[in-house]
User: Fold this.
Amino acid sequence: MYHFKTAVLLWVALCLSCSGQRSAQPAAVTWLELGGTQHEARLLKGFHRSEGAWRWTEQVFSVSLDPAPTHQPVYLELNLAMAEEVMKELQPVTLRARVNGVDVGSQTYDRHGQYSFLKPVPAAALKPGRATVEFALDKAARPAGPQLGLIAVSVGFKRQDETEAFRREQARKAQEGYQEVLRQRALKLSTAQQHELMKLFHELDIWKNMWFQGIQLIKNPCDLWMMQQIIYEVRPDYIIETGTWYGGSSLYWAHTLHGLGLENSRVLTVDLQDLTKEASDHPLWKKYVQFFETSSTDPQLVRRIAEIVKGKTVLVTLDSDHAMNHVLQELRLYAPLVSPGSYLVVEDTHMDGLTYPGYAGPSAAVNRFLQEGGDQLFERDLTREAMVMTFNPGGWLRRKK
Assistant:
């Protein structure tokens, strides 16, 4: 095996971790991890034996896929690597793709490395039923022996909003949006000073070592202070929280409600797993908190919560899975439940611009939500960022009255 193997192994691990949501394959197969053997029959031609997480291809190779029904543009993606020793022999080399005989596009490579071949698929190529996807290199190594083309990791169809290019664009917009939020604060501090102050505070890790009445919670204490102020002002009948973890924040909301004398108010909190054993023994939890063990985007759960809070004053805070598409789905589902004058708080929007530049997460989701019409009902309330050191820059959304 070429010494390029080590670099590819690291890259493959990243590819597989990013595509974990595809591990549970439905009946239709839209994506193939090419090193596996589960869908061996889908590899039509041009593949060598599995090398664990990838396969060498020949000059021409093809797979069979099921196009997923969608109204969005469909993209063909092939995650691949060009080995250094092969590229020394072939440089440059051009890869072309066809779907059901329809040309999709080509890409030329002139150096070794890891790549994602990503091209939009013409609608005419996506006929009902299985699709034959063929790739062809204009040359291959070892013409006299077993051909070596490229290292293939995974291949499949994606919606536009699932592609890496789309993610990078949303991450870029989120970074720009983060800087714009800092500018709009109109503080005496420059945007660079604000950024550095927030960054230094985050790196102190104080927020990783916080407990509320013996229950751990991972929150920015400045944001907890601002939340209790919002609860004081809004006086909600219900606080809906996604992302319970050990229940420390739910207990904090319950304590705030209790301190305000809102004896009939309740906290509705949801998480995929139940880690609340210790918190649930607290008297305030027993009185104020109702826990739901399921996905925050479960339609049945959202319908149930909507029925519970109907006609009431509602405050929502989102702190579960921070992937852009998940947060965007939460925004679309829970925004209609927020009362006029109350808040929809999207937590950890700092991830996009402060801690992981280039990441498309909560901030990117907020941007898309507002751009697709959410700004008709919600506006960013930058007064909630007066203490500067917030983990939710641009994420304090106030519903207009």
In short: The longest helix spans residues 164-184. DSSP finds eleven helices and 18 strands in the chain. The CA atoms of residues 294 and 301 lie 8 Å apart.
